[in-house]
Specification:
mainly alpha, 0% strand
Length: 82
């Protein structure tokens, strides 16, 4: 399988996982499309790398990312229509 094909499969799998995570949070404070974008951004390598810096392990940063994701998905005045 070529590198571009692997990338496409990886992104589809990633989107499916994110979709299941979004479905578990009800009600959402964001539209589903925005929630997917937020989760993909928060769980990116760049986010973990920036939070970990030079001296923190990924395991130490993961709970921070989890709290950020939950706050982002649940924050707001109420559910948003899809």
């Amino acid at each position: 399988m070529s590198a571009p094909a692997i990338g496409i499969v990886g992104r589809k799998r990633e989107r499916a996982i994110v979709g299941r995570l979004i479905a578990a949070v009800v009600p959402l404070a964001l539209a589903p499309r925005d929630a997917r974008a937020v989760l993909l951004m928060l769980t990116s390598f760049e986010t973990f790398d920036a939070l970990a810096g030079e001296d923190r392990a990924i395991a130490a940063v993961a709970p921070v990312v989890q709290r950020l994701a939950e706050a982002a998905l649940r924050h707001g005045d109420g559910p948003v229509a899809p």
